[in-house]
Every structure is written in C-alpha cells, then in structure tokens.
Write a structure and sequence with these properties.
The complex is a heterodimer of chains A (112) and B (112). Chain A has no helices and ten strands. With 112 residues, chain A is mostly beta strands. Chain A has a five-stranded antiparallel beta sheet with strand order 1-3-8-7-6, with no helix packed on it. In chain A, strand 6 and strand 7 form a beta hairpin. By secondary structure, chain B is mostly beta strands. Helix content of chain B is 0%, strand content 57%. Chain B contains no helices and eleven strands. In chain B, strands 2, 4, 5, 6, 9, 10 and 11 form a seven-stranded mixed beta sheet that branches. Chain B has a four-stranded antiparallel beta sheet with strand order 1-3-8-7, with no helix packed on it.
Chain lengths: 112, 112
C-alpha cells in the first residue's frame, strides 16, 4: 500500500485568506497525480490531472504545482470563499501502478 | 456529462445478510472502481475492474466480491455482511488509465 500524505489534515480560514495544502507521495515510477474536491453531500470531482515534473495547472482561484522528482504537489487557493469549503484529495498514480491511491485529504472550512 | 449512479443512497442491513451494491455508468468507460471511506482513513480501494469480467483486488478486498458482466455495471457484493463493513461506499469510473475518475454519489451502508 503506497504512503500518500496530505497536510494539514484540516484548516479553518477566513473569507479572503489564501491557503495551500501539500500532498507527498513516493516518487519512484510516477505516472500522474490527480486532485479532487469533495463537497459535503456531493461526489468527489476532479480538479486537475498532472503528469509532468514542473506542471502548473490553474482553474479560477485554484492552482496546483507538481514536483515528481521529490514527490510532492501543492494546491493553492487564492482569496478563499465559503463555497471553497470542502475536502481536497490528492491521488497519485505512482509506484508503477495506474490505479490512483488516495490521501486522507485536507478538510478546508472557510468562514464568512 | 458523465454520470455514475449508485443504486442506493442509504442502506441498512442485518449481520449475515448478502448485500449487493450496484453501480452504473453511462459513458462507456473501461475502468471501474469500488472504494470505501471511513473517518480518518480516506478512500481505500476494495476492487478494480479494467474491463468486462476482469477484476483486480485492491487494498482491502476481504469480505467482498465483485461482478462485471456488462461494461456499464459494476456490482459490489458483501457475501455475509458484518458490522465492520458499516461504511460509505463509493463507485467510480474512468475512460482509461490516462484520465480522471468520476464518482457516484455514495452509498452509506449500516450493518446492524
């Protein structure tokens, strides 16, 4: 079982704050990394699919970077809004496997 | 839009019952997954199917089996339900190994 670490486990911020989370994973035989957002009472939805070292992806106020050599990815949210409240999951496909292994997630709560 | 539909949102079963959780996707996806989600543990893979009648065990297959007779349908079977199988079960599908997963709405199963 791959060791995928996400930090912090949870985060409370005020509306307008910018924040970032970390996902670390084994870098050997890396294939891709996915980020998902999981809102309460909904299904997880994909935010980004990242494959190349140095990749940067952006969707609105949310962006992500990838370092495959050292095995980590950052997710940034600029100017957090209450609707950003969700659990953010990373899922690397690594260690020679094409099956995503999920981290435990970072729970973000944005207070108005 | 891709739709992944799980047959029940909530389910209560008795210990020892045989339980079927059904999942259907409407986008002709090759791969399908069953995960369970427990507090503090994240999403853990139970079984994976990469094609019709093809399956692979995930990280926690004990006490479960699966069936994929048609491409669009992936069933999770609890042969004899036990209280430690009380959990949230999530089905997902993806077109192929290069793409992100799409999730169903989840089935919250309680075994009493």
């Amino acid at each position: 079982i791959l060791n995928v670490e996400q930090s912090p486990q949870s985060l409370h911020v005020q509306e307008g704050d910018s924040t970032n989370f970390t996902c670390s994973f084994p870098s050997s035989n890396f294939y891709a990394l996915h980020w998902y957002r999981w809102e309460t009472a909904k299904s997880p939805e994909a935010l980004f699919v990242m494959t190349l070292n140095g990749d940067e992806k952006k969707k609105g106020r949310i962006s992500a970077t990838l370092n495959t050599k050292e095995g980590y990815s950052y997710l940034y949210i600029k100017g957090s809004q209450p609707e950003d409240s969700a659990t953010y999951l990373c899922a690397p496909l690594t260690g020679g496997s094409y099956i995503p292994t999920f981290g435990r997630g970072t729970s973000l709560i944005v207070h108005p | 839009d891709v739709k992944v539909t799980q047959s029940s949102r909530y389910l209560v079963k008795r210990t020892g019952e045989k339980v079927f959780l059904e999942c259907v996707q409407d986008m002709d996806h090759e791969n399908m997954f069953w995960y369970r989600q427990d507090p503090g543990l994240g999403l853990r893979l139970i079984y994976f199917s990469y094609d019709v009648k093809m399956k692979e065990k995930g990280d926690i297959p004990e006490g479960y089996s699966v069936s994929r007779e048609k491409k669009e349908r992936f069933s999770l079977i609890l042969e004899s339900a036990s209280t430690n199988q009380t959990s949230m079960y999530l089905c997902a599908s993806r077109r192929d190994r290069f793409t992100e997963a799409f999730f169903g709405q989840g089935t919250r199963l309680t075994v009493v």
